[in-house]
Every structure is written in C-alpha cells, then in structure tokens.
# Entry
Amino acid sequence: MTSQRTADRRVSAIDMTIGNELRTIVAFAVPLLLSNILQQCYSLTDVAIIGHELGDDALTAIGAVTTIVDLYNSLVIGMSNGFSVIIAKFYGAHDPAKLRQAVANTCFLAVIWGIVIMFAGIFTLNPMMKLLNTPETVYDAGYSYAIIMISLIGFSFLYNILSGLLRAIGNSKAPLYFLLVSVITNIALDLLFVVVLPYGLPGAAIATVMSQALSSFICLFYIVKKVPELHFRRKDMKLDRNMLGELFSAGFSFALMYSVVNVGTIVLQGAINGLGSAIIAAHTTARKISSLCMMVLSTLANSMATFAGQNHGAGRYDRIRRGLKQILIISMAVSTVEIIAIYLAGGLLVRGISGSSNPEIINTAVFYLKFDLPFYYVLAIILITRATLQGMGSKIAPIAASIMELFLKIFTAGFLVRKFAYTGVAMCEPIIWTVCAVYILIVFFMNKNIRLSSSSLHADSTRS
# Structure
C-alpha cells in the first residue's frame, strides 16, 4: 500500500513527511520566496511609478487607503491560507478521497466568502476613510484607487485559493511561474495606464487587478491540465457538514487573525493621518520597504505552516519540532543581514522607491526602518512559531495573540502617538512583538503533541 501511494505522487507535489526536514522546507520555501517577491512587485511598482509620475500627493493618497484595502485582502488571503492547511493535512495523511472532497467544499466556501467580502468592502469604504481622517486633499484620489481594488478583489482571492491548493500539496514552483508572467504584465499596464494614458491612480488599480486576473486564469488552467491530485468528481461535490465546518473554522481563524492585525494597523493609520501629508508619505514608503524585508520571514513562516500541516496529518510531531528549530536559526541569520543593509543603504532605498526629494519624507522613513528592524529577531519567533501552531490545527492561540496586538495598537495610537508623535508610531510594533513572542512560545511548548515528541526524542537519545 505504501509503495502504491508513493507511486501515485506526482512530480508536481512534495511529500514533506519524509526526508531531511531542512532540505525539504528550503526546497519548498525558495520558489515561495520568489513568488512573494513578485507579489510585492505589484505594490512596489505602483508606489514607484505613482511617486515618480504623479508626485507626493498621489503617494499620500495611496498611503491613506492602503490599510483599508489590506484589511479586505487579509480576509480573503487568511481564508485561503486556512483552507490550504486542511488540504495539506489530508495530503500528508495520504487520504485522496478526503483530499478531493476538501477541494470541492473549498470551492463552494470560496464563492460565498468572496461575494460577502466584496460587498462588505464596497459599502464600508467611504465610512472607513472618514473614520481614518483621510485628508480632504487626497480623499477623492484615494477613494478612486481603493474602490477598484475592493470591487474586483475576487481575482486576488481566486489566485490565492488556487495557489494555496498547489502549495498545500508541496508545489510552490508553479505559482512562481504564473506570477512572473503576471508581474511583467502589471509593470507594462502600469506604464500604459499611468504614464502613457492619463488614468492616474485608477489606472494603477486597473493594472494590478488585470494582472491578478491573468495569474488566476493561468493557475486554474495548470491545475486542470497538470495536477490530477486536486481534481474532484461529481460525488466529491456533496457538501459535508463536518468538512465544511473544518474548512471554515480553519479559514476563519486565519482571516480573523489577519483582520484583527489589520484593524490595529488601521487604528494606528488614523493617528498617522493626523500628523500631516509628509508623514503619511514617509510611512507609506517605509512600510513598503519593511514589507519587503519581512518577506523572507513570512515565507519561512508559510513554509512551516505547510510543513507542519502535512506532518500533523501524518502524526510526525518530531519532524515539526526539528524543522522549527532549524528554520528559526536561519531566520535569525536573515534578520542580521537585513538590519545591516538598512543601516548602510536605507536612505537610498527610500529615495529610489518614493521618488521624493523631500528631506522630511526621506529622514522620517529611514528613522522608522532603523528603529524597527533590530526587532526582527523577535518578529521571526512570532511569525514562524505561530504559523507552525496553525499548521498543527491550533486556532485559539494565534487569534489570542492577534487580539493582544489589536489592543496594544489601540493603546499606542491613543497614548504613544499623542505623546511622542511619529516616534510613538515607530515604538508601537517592537513593543507588541516582544509581548506576543513570549505568549506564542509559552503556548507552543505547552502543546501536548510537541511535549510528547520532546519526551520521545529525549528517551531515544538516552537509550542511545
């Protein structure tokens, strides 16, 4: 039976329940990292072209609405990530019938969730922009950009669902190739709609959405033609209450976790919007660079979620523990390199991405980066350990950590920003990361399966 299951595995997938843990995770993570870099190219291309072609006011408009758009993106990305954890579990358990059923039920839930988020975003965009004190000078421009992104969020959701299915079975290479085509298209359309044609910020939004649609359709075509593991039959399309409940609870826990984090960021953005246009533009640029620096850590975290999901399905908690230790060591080395790079070339990065020559914008953005990046050692612990817990089916602990982050951001927006202005903004996340890291580590090592695997490893070493 084992040999038959192995023979059924296609070259499109990676079985992460066997082989050296570090090599397996890295083989999965490298294409995923390149995919994430390409994903960032969407937003970085928008910022670079808009900043250079349309000026600081357009950059301010983007910054004023980015947190709102990110909130709704987090609700669809979180849901798709939760679905992929369940898919990974059934794949790791070598249960093709359950795998097909899970894919079919995922498609049903995805349609409903996508429609709900689209309409929720359309009806709440205007009130949220007012709540965040969006400056009147950039209000209309920001709205024109955000409404397009939210109205057509279904393309982003479709791609994340399909790429999540592929990654759940260990295939992180195919989504990379699709994104490469999509990003090249995005850059070309950005230049067309912003530089050549006078479409302004709506043009940048249209370019991004069209590129996402392209990557979605290519991904769907690939799955239909090349990935039989993810094909479901008519009998698999029967809605199963238990399966729907498992998928929805996993997806909703991710979505809730991501959205709680983004709500906290929106609260903080409301305080930042009161500090003036130059500060908004500086923070927008700094956050883009910060997101780029976080990319390796988030990639390692996502890789650990898939690795933990497959090994959770196979009951291999000893592999999860060893893999986590090795990936944390790598994350510390990566953080060190990034910190050095920002301290040496932070100003050049800010000027290159923002296109601004305003000293206040450049100096403020560099200050934020130099303050926050040394705390990436703490951030690495949070992201990677939390993702491992989620891969193992934990739902409450990650949400609790996110709620903790929300309340701390409300505190910083209400006290630190008012008392220390933008320095209070820079202080916010390092404080939050430190508190949450302690909590996540305690929860992880209190996990029953991890404690049992630790005891087993200790007993084996003693016998040796």
